[in-house]
Structure formats: C-alpha cells, structure tokens
Design brief:
It is built from 9 helices and 11 strands. By secondary structure, it is an alpha+beta fold.
Length: 246
C-alpha cells in the first residue's frame, strides 16, 4: 500500500511534468479510457504528455496527417470536420471539456481520417502515440478500455443519428446541455462556442432553429447571454432529455 505522502509526491511530479492542474488530472482520470488503471500505469502512459494552449482557429491536424497523438479537452471546444472535393467543410463532431478524441486514429493505417481545429481558445492535453501504444502492449486493462471506448463512441454516433430522427429539436438541445452538466452542481454556467452554427451542426439543425429551441427552454430555467448558458434546474432538463419510457 502506497503511503499518502508518497502518492502525493507522485501526483505532484506528474502535474509538474505535464503542466496539468489538479482539476485537469481529475478530468483525465474520469475518462472511460483510463477507468480502472492504477495511478502508476496512468503516470507511465502520460510520461510524454503535455498541456498546450491553442488560440481559436488553430489547426491541430489535417485529414491524412500521421496520427502521432491523441487529445483530451481540458477547456474549450474542438471541431472535427472533413473537406469535400469542392472545398466545403462538413462538421463531424464537436468535443468539449472532459472528452478525448483521435485515439482510434493511431491504430490501423495510423493517419487522421478528419481535420481538427480549435473552435474556441482551448487547453488540450497532447498524448503522444509512442507512449500510448507502448502502454497498450503492456497493459490489457488499457486495451480493453480502448476497445470499450471505441464501442461507446460508435454507439454514441448511432444514438445521435437516431436522435435526429426521433427527438424534437428542443429535446436534442436539452440532451446536449445535460451532457455538458455532468459532474457540476446547479446552477451550471456553460460557455458555448462563439460560433453557434457549430452547435447547430452537431445537433442537426439550422442556427435559427437552435435559437428557437433555446427560447423554449427558458421555462425550464435555461437562459443565455451571448455564448454563456445558465442552467438553474438540471433535473428539469433531464426530465425533458431523458423521458420515462416505462
């Protein structure tokens, strides 16, 4: 059993080496990818990881680039998109605080299948492929977590497609906001991207439809000022996003 003082020293050493704060480490440890990993295994996996700050509009990688790292969003928003032959951009996903992306790209062909850009000023933890793939070879738990994480992401995409067909625009917005509230106590204040067309694209609606959906959520205590969203009653939001089907 590791003494508390020794554990504290190990944590402090990891924070100094990576540039993370204590809250950042809590976010990382809560990722499904790292569920059940002993701290020593996590510290080894993050041996070469570093926190980087990115201005809005910073390109993280382009479609076809070597997949040499994956990312954890500590603050801000990241947009994944693909370019069409005629130069148009199609938003594939939008990632927020507490989410990771690009893990699977490091496997197989080892190239990113999409482009990624910081949709807002963002703080990201960069985890190099070298240390991650080495840890995969040595740790069966991490392998299982990665497969489970990929399966959950596939299921999330299936649910997203189903939601577009089954849920109303207001219900989709409620579910989106509810996910961002995870781990926070009300009242919750969220910072959405300045370009709300990104949120609209993720939810499969036009920007004006998104504005109307926000207006309809006011009765549940959801208010907006600029790109800030204040949610007074998370449970009321949950009742709309997760109706009792029994």
């Amino acid at each position: 059993m590791v003494e508390p003082a020794v554990e504290r020293e190990r944590v402090d050493a990891l924070l100094r080496r990576t540039g993370m704060a204590a809250d950042d480490l809590a976010i990382v440890r809560a990722l499904p990818l790292f569920a059940g990993l002993p701290f020593a295994a996590l510290a080894s996996l993050l041996a070469d990881a570093r926190v980087h700050e990115h201005a809005r509009g910073t390109t993280l990688f382009l479609q076809g680039d070597p997949a040499d790292r994956f990312y954890v969003v500590l603050d801000g928003w990241v947009r994944l998109y693909r370019e069409t032959p005629d130069g148009a951009e199609i938003t594939i996903a939008l990632f927020a605080r507490g989410e990771s992306f690009a893990e699977a790209a490091m496997l197989g062909p080892g190239r990113y299948p999409v482009c990624a850009v910081a949709a807002e000023p963002s703080r990201l933890l960069h985890v190099p492929a070298s240390s991650f793939l080495g840890a995969l070879e040595a740790d069966r738990t991490l392998c299982r977590n990665l497969m489970a994480s990929m399966a959950r992401r596939l299921q999330a995409f299936v649910r997203q497609i189903e939601s577009l067909a089954r849920r109303s625009t207001v219900e989709r917005l409620a579910a989106f906001l509810l996910k961002l509230c995870e781990g926070r106590r009300p009242p919750v204040v969220l910072e959405l991207p300045l370009d709300k067309t990104l949120v609209a694209a993720r939810l499969g609606m036009q920007p004006e439809t998104l504005s109307r959906a926000f207006a309809r959520l006011r009765r549940l205590g959801v208010t907006t000022v600029g790109h800030a969203v204040r949610i007074e009653d998370v449970e009321a939001l949950r009742s709309l996003a997760e109706p009792d089907e029994g």
